[in-house]
Design goal:
It is a single chain. This protein is of the alpha+beta class. The chain has two domains: 97 residues, 2-Layer Sandwich (Phosphorylase Kinase, domain 1); 222 residues, Alpha-Beta Complex (Aminoglycoside 3'-phosphotransferase, Chain: A, domain 2). Helices cover 40% and strands 13% of the residues. The strands form three sheets. It has a five-stranded antiparallel β-sheet, covered by helices on one side. It has a two-stranded antiparallel sheet with strand order 6-9. α5 runs antiparallel to α6 and α7 runs antiparallel to α9. It is globular and about 60 Å long.
Length: 341
């Protein structure tokens, strides 16, 4: 059998054994569909299964595929009420697959990725799913990060200002053309950075397809996944990104008709209001956060195209993702200028 790109099954099997896993039969590996960032694999023997994650094989952007970050936060959250997969092992040096990788237990629950995945769910189940997503995000933001050993995981002070600069640098690293809106939005964001903000663990990529639901219960999250962009920062960046992901143009970034862009879910405004009500959080400077989220998504879309052109694409049609970049930047400008169209 031809080996999957970015995978070395015999080396992974040896690594698992060296980390106390007794394999029952031959180890097999499958690429888990739906990933457009880090490569995600299911590894399994005759009795058990694990999830293995590593960065793409080429076209990396600075800090966007940080496996050490993912490992640190999921390990720390094991003792909290934030649902995460049980951690198994971490190869920080990349000796097994040629890049750092994490291994966690495989959860057999369901993932809602596409519009098709929503067809079997009632409106009541979708409402329950939405409420649970908001509750879990609120739980994450309420974790005492010092108490769980993440006091040095990031620097909440000045986080949003650094985010503007970070995503500006990443644009320079992945851009495939010049877009004036990018520079305009960047400058307006830098001028509008709030003077102070809250600090918490932030996921950095929170939406319905980045959680695993308990089998048969869309209103219960079994595990939040895809933590490689997590840090300590402003919790409103998580909320705003979750809301901005609702835009239909996000389908072009994911390369599918995404469940999260479906009109069956509450609107972005309704999601923000739910979070504010459930957590008692004031959505101060909200237009800034929406603009920043759009800026980030525009850069991410460009990064997917950059990797596709470099020959590393974890899904079909990634070259089309850059078509969304201009729309995200335009939406960011509308938000920061407080315009509706």
């Amino acid at each position: 059998m031809t080996e999957l790109p970015g995978m070395d099954t015999p080396a992974l099997a040896q690594f698992l054994v060296e980390n106390g896993i007794s394999l029952a039969g031959d180890l097999k590996v499958e690429l888990i569909s739906g990933g457009r960032s880090n490569l995600t694999f299911k590894a399994f023997d005759d009795n058990s299964a694990w999830v293995v994650r590593r960065p793409p094989t080429s076209g990396l952007t600075p800090s966007a595929h940080d496996m050490a970050r993912e490992w640190a936060v999921t390990s720390a959250l094991q003792s909290t009420d934030v649902p995460v997969a049980k951690t198994v092992a971490f190869d920080a040096e990349g000796t097994v697959l040629g890049a750092p990788m994490t291994v966690v237990e495989f959860d057999p629950g369901a993932v809602i990725r596409t519009r098709e995945d929503l067809e079997s769910l009632s409106d009541a189940q979708i409402a329950s799913n939405t409420s649970e997503l908001i509750r879990v995000l609120g739980r994450l933001h309420s974790v005492d990060f010092e108490a769980v050993g993440l006091g040095s995981f990031g620097k909440p002070a000045g986080f949003v200002g650094r985010q503007v600069k970070t995503w500006s640098r990443q644009w320079e690293a992945v851009k495939t053309r010049e877009l004036p809106d990018v520079e305009t939005l960047r400058d307006k964001l830098l001028d509008a950075v709030p003077s102070s903000s809250a600090g918490s663990i932030v996921h950095g990529d929170y939406r319905v397809d980045n959680v695993i639901l308990r089998a048969g219960d869309p209103g219960s999250v079994a595990a939040v996944v895809d933590w490689e962009m997590s840090t300590l920062g402003d919790p409103l960046t998580d909320v705003a990104l979750m809301c901005v992901y609702r835009q239909p143009i996000f389908d072009d970034v994911l390369g599918v008709s995404a469940a999260w862009t479906s009109p069956r879910y509450p609107s972005a405004d309704e999601l923000a209001e739910m979070y504010s009500r459930d957590t008692g959080t004031e959505l101060a400077h909200w237009n800034f956060y929406l603009a920043l989220a759009n800026f980030k998504l525009g850069v991410i879309g460009e990064g997917i195209t950059h990797r596709a052109l470099a020959g590393s694409d974890s899904g079909s049609g990634a070259a089309a993702a850059a078509e969304a970049t201009h729309e995200f930047m335009a939406a960011g400008l509308r938000a920061i200028d407080n315009r509706t169209a």
